[in-house]
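Issue 218. Parser rejects a valid record. Input:
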Amino acid sequence: MGKAIINKKINDTFLRRALKNFAAAYPVARAKAFEGIDFEALRGRISDFKQAGLKGLPELVSRFKTQAEQTGAKVYVCSSPEEANRTILEIIRSKGADFLVKSKAMTSEEIELNPYLEKNGIRCLETDLGEWIIQLAGERPSHMVMPAIHKNKEEVAELFSKETGHDCPPDIPFLVRTAREALRGGFLTGQVGLSGANVAMADSGAIGIITNEGNGRLVTTLPDTHIALIGVEKIVPSLKEALDVIEVLPKNATGQKITSYVSFIKGPTGAGRELHIVLLDNGRLKLAADPDFSEALKCVKCGACANVCPIYEIVGGHVFGHIYVGGIGLVLTPFFHGFDKAEEILKLCIGCKKCNEACASKIDIEGLIVDLRDRIRKPMGQKFLFGTMMKNRKLFHAALRTAYLAQKPFQGEGGRIRHLPLILNRETANRSLPPIAEKPFRDLVAERPATSDQRPATREKVLFYTGCLADFVYPEMCRDAKESLEKLGYEVVFPQEQTCCGIPARYSGEMDVARDMARINTDVLLAQEADYVATICPTCTMSLKHDFQKLLEGDDVYREKSLRLAAKVFNYSELAARKIGFGSAQPTARSLSGVEGNVVTYHDACHLKRGCGVYEEPRKVLRELAGVEIAEMTDCDKCCGFGGSYSIKYPEISQEVLKNKMENIKATGVSTVAVDCPGCKLQIEGGLEAAGTGITVEHSATLVARKLRQ
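Output the parser choked on:
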């Protein structure tokens, strides 16, 4: 993605304000809309029947076609956008018409219907207010549900003035009235109407449409000919499943309990009327049969993945997507429009998994994005970096030690790095970086064998997996984790042969390298008997516990090994929480109230909360073992913008995400931020230090170790 357009969107004041305001209001409205409803159960049902439907999608299409035709509708199954466009053009021409009125249909954007029809002499009028605005602007939607969210009232007033020929002030009620008056003539004179559909029912041949404007009903009832353009994945078995989709859509899309209009259409509605249903394949049937990516078609097009995405909030849909935007848009683009349209946008995902959490049908959106990176072209030299450098533990570690010497000229007061040479300086433009340590933890632990001042008769053995960043940049963090776990009664051993968990390779699309690293670390961590494998990096936790299984599921030798390893892997806070009350570790209420400045705020690492499902244990550990109280910040689980190499590849976006996090931290008034991720510490600490806030960032292990040393 070009830096110019990214910077343009970052500097678009209205866009940033509009998306930020919506991002703040949406979770509140959504939570209220789902009051009294078990969202997990609802989306679980949707996921199940959607997945089952995909397995028999050709049969569902056939059943729907048969039932719809029995009601008098004419059904066309079109394999490509070209065929769908030709079919719609032929229907319009067969009516002797040259004017099409449309209600909102993302599938028509997908096949670029409007330009095709207009090139062939058919005038098209979008009657959805947002769609009409972007039609007048000559743009595409920037959101699946709110297509004109990127437009301000001044821009809309200018568009309406040009279209109507009279001056339109930037007054929203006036603009809405102007649109109503301008579109009314189209409803009355439209010769053919076209709509999409939110759902189609195979057992009855009926389609369901939900809208917030009356245009949907006008377009489907006033013209004698109605064309419904529907992606085949919208077909469900019956009304029962359709009602689940209709219930979740408005709540998850915009935080509404229900939309203004819910319409079911079954066959022509009167004498002389025609219903033409154009079912669009465009790679869907092939995708439905793909064992790795079929779940993408479970999408109900609610747009929630964009609503909660920290990257979409910064750059909007014209950057974070192609035709379909948001996380699911990144996944669908290569299958609907080709990998050439997807190469750049697939790299824009930061991997926070927020989309997975909000998805109405439980799609592993982030996982699909990562897997698709294996299929796109890779930068020159990347294969060497991961395949030769990082996979070779000794070579990689030697390079990091060399980097320790190379950083010297760029270290400022206090040892932190503030300015790097040439293009690398973009990465530190608004933050400082910690230096690579003189001695990594692996060297320090080799010099000082493990000791413990508490030795119960039976101690559980822990293998300590540090991850690269903590090992080479934060050795003191590793020391604190090891020491505190030992004081809590564990025997802690550091396997020297451990190497990178492979996440950098996997997130860069080098899946073969990631598999090799998974095998290496699996062997190392299973080479000796141990009760647990402890990590202090959530990304490593997620990798060892979940990603290794996915990477190695096709390997007969390592499949069972990865399962055994996963059962032993726990994040630091999980293991520490198990020992609350052990020995003298339990602080008293008096000690809590007697500690000066004992209030911290806590930042949830994306991969710990959403990747591993761990969020209660860190807070319990901080309160009960570190002896601090927690002042929760707004959006405590929202991404800090680090994303590993993301902050280097897209520093402009990374720093804007960080600014949001820093605002929320400063609003709490605390002097310390607690984290459970070395990467989050690097990102947040660098921003706070560069801004001169005086706020420190500490790993939970460090706060616990300090308390236990008392």
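Fixed in the parser; the record now loads. The CA atoms of residues 461 and 491 lie 5 Å apart.
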